[in-house]
Amino acid sequence: RITTTWGEELALRLDPKRKMSADGDGDNVLGRQIGGRKTVVKNKSAADRQITAEQMLRESMERGGADQTFRPPKRVITDHQELAELRLQKRKEYEDTIRRSRTNMGVWAQYALWEASQKEFERARSVFERAIDVDYKNQSIWLKYAEMEMKNRFVNHARNVWDRAVTLLPRVDQFWYKFSYMEEMLGNVAGARQIFERWMKWAPGPNAWNTYIKFEVRRRNIPRARSVYERMLITHNELETYLKFAKFEVKHGKKEYGRLVYERALKELGEDAHREELFVAFAKFEEACKEFDRARVIYKYALDNVPKEEAKRLYEMYSAFEKKHGTRETVEDVILSKRRFQYEEEIRDNPLNYDAWFDYIRLEEAKGKKDRIREVYERAISNKPPVQEKRFWKRYVFLWINYAVFEELDAKDVERARMVWRACLQNIPHKVFTFAKVWLMAARFEVRQRDLKAARQLLGTALGKCPKEKLFKGYIELEFRLAEIDRCRKIYEKYLEFMPENCQAWKKYGELEATLQESERARAIFEMAVNQEVLDMPEMLWKAYIDFEIRLKQFDRVRELYRRLLKRTKHVRVWISFAQFETSINDIKRARGVFEEANDYFKSGSEDDSAASLKEERVMLVETWLEFETNRGSNKTVQKVKDMLPRRVRNKRLIKAEDGSDAYWEEYYDYIFPDEDQKQQTNFKLLEMARKWKTQQKMEED
Length: 702
Description:
The chain is an all-alpha fold.
């Protein structure tokens, strides 16, 4: 039986020679022809409610649903003639479609499969062959061709199709898979192996080799599978292939062969084998074989050779291994490796993080491996700051300093330390800024090596390129320790030429000559210093000069210096120091005279409104004077000074704003001395007398 549509059935059953009647009664004729019944229309008048075609379509969609597809009625064929006519019509339709779209392989496949469904296998093969002639590179047509043959148990025909397919399209792996699988299912092991061998000659991908190996394993032919792996290593010399080969050997009980495969991977792949996967698998293999020492060596070798950013899992595995099988020392090594990995991550994120570099270097120094310490130092100093600003270079320069100290003290390599110092000085941009510490430490290094000439050359070069106060001081200190006094004097001269306003330099120069008991030279230096027009700290210089004369017990010169200083400044501390000097040599009369002279000066200055700030200095002077009289004077002199002490009063003053308006009142403390109080009382009496006189004059006028 064959089903067909209602239109085809109608066309077969209708007699094409019969015609409808001329009066147009087509419905009655059609009814008689189809069912043998006469259809009678009772009322042919127009209905009261008309239905449009649009409404009919809408109702059909609502009732039937848009998702329901049209299902044609089944047709039952009971006659061979009808079947032949149907086949002829279907073939004609397919041929017409093929002529219109010759390259549409889907139509060819439908045509061929329809012929196969009619058990017309020769015709189906003919259609497939015609399709292959049109486009032999189309994979789906070959697959459907071969599947049709296998489905209908034409094994030899299927072999022929697969053979032609793999010959024409050898790079399509699906053909090889299905061809070999068919032969294996048929029990033709030799034929399947022959197919695999043909396939392997084309050097396919790893999946094809794995399929061949699995085939041999299923046939329990392990030696042949091993030989396939060996051939696969030639074609695909990759780490994944070695790992699979090693697992294969271990799985089948050949542990010594598995170890050889891992070792071959390290030897034959070289740097490409330095990957986390290989070492983790190798170490796990040795651990499973109870070879803990071998596993530990593998882990350590891996940590030294695998890039740190790719060894995270390796560190975790190593830590777990040592916790299970290691000792306390080995666990500490694991922790050290983990910290090293953390530092590597920090450095990778920010190579200019010098604090991380310092921590990393200290970690390696604690380990004590010189080559590794040097490697870390070299990596650290290669990260030069991108900006030429001194604040960015401070931490960087300390890397060089630590490197040089390590080479000198720990590694005991003097020449390498000298090279580090030279390289450090070459990297610093001395025209922009410099580091006196580096110059001085490099010079001291040469002194420790007993090469004074090299040390002096370094410091001379430093003073020529970038003179700094610290360099002068360091150079002078070096020559002074070497007892090279003439060199010290020359350096001091250069120092003072460079910074003539530096009181500290003048003071040190004078003290140097004083230490050498060159009093005249020291006095001349101090005289030159105090006569400079610009000085940064003149009070320190005058004090050093005065102390120098006091040590020589030249008291007249000291008094002369104090008088010269008082001509330049009338500061209260100078007066107090002058008086204390006279007290120290037990000249009480002169000391009291100095206090009285100072008091007279501040008294006259405080009477002037412009010198109101001298009151506080006068208070300090009087308090110091009272202390002096308490220790060295009599009761009379003490009472006299006490009578000079001022009263402390609280006053208010108006504070002006920036625009000149009154802002607020401020409270402050003021000092009123007895002489000022008497003067104020005298002024008050004069004002009272003037008021009384004015009142008397007014009364007389009245």
